[in-house]
Amino acid sequence: MNILSIVLGVVAVIVILIIAVILFTSVAIIHTGEVGIVERLGKYVQTLQPGFHVVPPIIYRITEVVNMKQIPLKVDEQEVITKDNVVVRISETLKYHITDVNAYVYQNKDSVLSMVQDTRANLRGIIGNMDLNDVLNGTETINQTLFTQIAETTAGYGLNVDRVNIDSIKVDTTIQDSMNKLLRASREKEANIMEAEGHKQAAIAKAEGEKQASILEAEANKQTQILQAQGRAESQRLIAEAVKDQINSINAGLAHDGDMYLKYKNVEALESLAKGDANTVVLPSTAIDSLGQIPAVGQVLAATQTKK
């Protein structure tokens, strides 16, 4: 009886352990951002969404948990040849997420590897149609073209490429040295052009300044000459006005005392004759008569005649 009891006890413990293991293995917890693939005897049955699930053991089995989050992938550096036969080394990064679990798991042996291979092949084709200078200065164009091409291809892999980014583009050291020399030469050329342009602009500005100074000086001289001419004209006008006033005054005087003025002039003429060396002066009788009409001279002549 004791032996039988021991055997039954062992069997009971084993059964309990088996049941516990079965229950434990039948419980599945799928985390957020993931899905579980359930198979029954090797055949796909369903996709488990995030949460708590009980899967009957032995017959049913969760074969794979698929991450549905966006996944970054660093693609190994590869060598490609440009259109002008220059070898460049390019590395890129992809960001993708799984869109079709069935296609990702069952229709492709390795969807990620297929995506990487297509990416590298498409990149070779893109770079092969571009010159080195275009490759170095056109990373955004390369990214956009590569993204468009692989987005169409990877849709069949159950993947969606969200972003493609060229991380680095490297060239051979000798090519890099040549490019650096060319860049330095180009910069020196641009500096010389800018310096020459600066001298040119300075010369133009100087010439413009001298031109403006000459114009201003000529304008000033012109204004000076105009003012001088106006001054001379005004002076001559004033002199003419004065002469005119004198003439008018003389004319006015002659209009009232013309005879007396002529008689006065006869006296001045006689005075000049008297100062001469001649002892005898012959005068016409009209001159003597006109002298007599001057009051002072008339009195002298009258006195002389009375004495006689």
From TrEMBL:
Keyword Metal-binding in annotation: no
Keywords from the UniProt entry: Hydrolase, Membrane, Protease, Transmembrane, Transmembrane helix
Alphabetized SMART domains for the sequence: PHB (SM00244)
Residue intervals of the Band domain: 25-183
Pfam families cross-referenced by the UniProt entry: Band_7
BP GO terms, sorted: proteolysis
GO CC field: membrane
Highest taxon of the lineage: Bacteria
UniProt KW Transmembrane helix keyword: yes
GO molecular function: peptidase activity
Residue intervals passing through the bilayer: 6-30
PANTHER family for the chain: STOMATIN-LIKE PROTEIN 2, MITOCHONDRIAL
Descriptive protein name: Membrane protease subunit, stomatin prohibitin family protein
